[in-house]
Design goal:
rod-shaped, 2 domains, 3 helices, mainly alpha
Length: 120
Amino acid sequence: MGIKLFLSSEQILNHCFAAVPKGYDPLDVDEYLDRIIADYRTVESNLLIKAEEQEVLEKRIESLQNEIKRLEIENAKLSSRLSDIKPSDNVNADNINYIRRINQLEAFLYQEGYDPRIIK
């Protein structure tokens, strides 16, 4: 999607016009071409900057797409683990307190050297 330029600023700068008896004042032509060259160099530098920005953005897009894929896989795993929870199961403060208490008890068992997953 880049812009194709037919001339570079150096080509414009180094171009020589044929001398003719009747024509334009060479100094006026040179001054005008100097302004064109300045504008052209600005365009060229902007194109280079835009190309570099585009590369950075494309790499960022690729990394974000990989992150999305990873998160979708993780979401699918978690969804399958939580599929047993019914919508009718109400979560309230008591349930949250029970979960906190269970976590505390599991932490205590781990500190004592027991694995609570294998205790029956």
